[in-house]
TrEMBL record:
<dbReference type="InterPro" id="IPR039422">
    <property type="entry name" value="MarR/SlyA-like"/>
</dbReference>
<dbReference type="InterPro" id="IPR036390">
    <property type="entry name" value="WH_DNA-bd_sf"/>
</dbReference>
<dbReference type="InterPro" id="IPR036388">
    <property type="entry name" value="WH-like_DNA-bd_sf"/>
</dbReference>
<keyword id="KW-0804">Transcription</keyword>
<keyword id="KW-0238">DNA-binding</keyword>
<dbReference type="Pfam" id="PF12802">
    <property type="entry name" value="MarR_2"/>
</dbReference>
<dbReference type="InterPro" id="IPR023187">
    <property type="entry name" value="Tscrpt_reg_MarR-type_CS"/>
</dbReference>
<feature type="domain" description="HTH marR-type">
    <location>
        <begin position="1"/>
        <end position="142"/>
    </location>
</feature>
<protein>
    <submittedName>
        <fullName>MarR family winged helix-turn-helix transcriptional regulator</fullName>
    </submittedName>
</protein>
<keyword id="KW-0805">Transcription regulation</keyword>
<dbReference type="InterPro" id="IPR000835">
    <property type="entry name" value="HTH_MarR-typ"/>
</dbReference>
Length: 188
C-alpha cells in the first residue's frame, strides 16, 4: 500500500471539495439573487423538518453546520420577513422556525432559478454519475460515524399539480438536460 499516494489523494480530494463547495455557493448566489445559497438551504431544511421540529439544532443538523451559524442565517431571514421564530411548545429552551407567506414566495422563486443553476452545474454529468457522486459524498459525510439527515424525503410536490411557473421550469430543465446529453454523446 502506498500511504504517500493515499495521503496525497486525500489532501487533493479535500482541497477540491472545499473549492467546489465555495464555487457552487458563489455561483448559486448569483443565480438565486433574492437569497444566498446558504439562506435558501436553511429554508429548504425547514421545509424538510416535521411540523414543530424546525428548531435551530435540527436545522443545523440537517445542514451539517453549527447552531450558531444557523442562528445567524435565521436572524437575517427573519429581518427580511421570510421566517418567523416562536418559542417551542415541546422545549422551553428552544425556538421553532416557520416560513412566512413572503418566505414561501421567495423560496418558490429561488426553486425555479435553482433548476437553471443545477442544469448548468451538472450538465457534464450523466444520471449514473450523479448517483455515484451522491453516494460517495454521503459515504464521506459518515467519516465520523454520523449519518447525514439529508433531503431525500419527498416534500409536497405533486407532478400532476404543478403551477404554471413550475411546469415551465421543469420543461426547460428537461430541455437543458436533453441538450446536455446530446452534447455529451457527440463528444464521445
Amino acid at each position: 500500500m502506498d500511504f504517500y499516494k493515499d495521503l496525497f489523494l486525500m489532501q487533493q480530494t479535500y482541497s477540491t471539495l472545499f473549492s467546489v463547495t465555495n464555487k457552487l455557493q458563489v455561483q448559486g448566489d448569483q443565480y438565486l439573487q433574492s437569497l444566498t445559497s446558504r439562506q435558501c438551504m436553511a429554508m429548504v431544511a425547514i421545509v424538510h423538518l416535521p411540523e414543530g421540529g424546525a428548531t435551530l439544532n435540527n436545522i443545523a443538523r440537517k445542514l451539517g453546520t453549527t447552531k450558531q451559524s444557523v442562528k445567524q442565517l435565521i436572524d437575517i431571514l427573519e429581518k427580511k420577513g421570510y421566517v418567523n421564530v416562536v418559542p417551542s411548545k415541546q422545549d422551553k429552551r428552544a425556538v421553532n422556525v416557520g416560513i412566512t407567506e413572503s418566505g414561501k414566495q421567495v423560496l418558490m422563486e429561488c426553486s425555479e432559478k435553482s433548476i437553471y443553476f443545477f442544469a448548468e452545474a451538472f450538465k457534464h454529468f450523466t444520471t449514473e454519475e450523479m448517483e455515484i457522486l451522491w453516494s460517495l459524498l454521503k459515504k464521506l459525510y459518515r467519516f465520523d460515524g454520523e449519518e447525514q439527515s439529508g433531503f431525500e424525503e419527498e416534500i409536497e410536490f405533486e407532478r400532476d399539480n404543478l403551477t404554471e411557473v413550475q411546469s415551465r421550469a421543469m420543461k426547460e430543465f428537461a430541455r437543458l438536460r436533453t441538450e446536455s446529453e446530446m452534447k455529451r454523446r457527440s463528444n464521445e
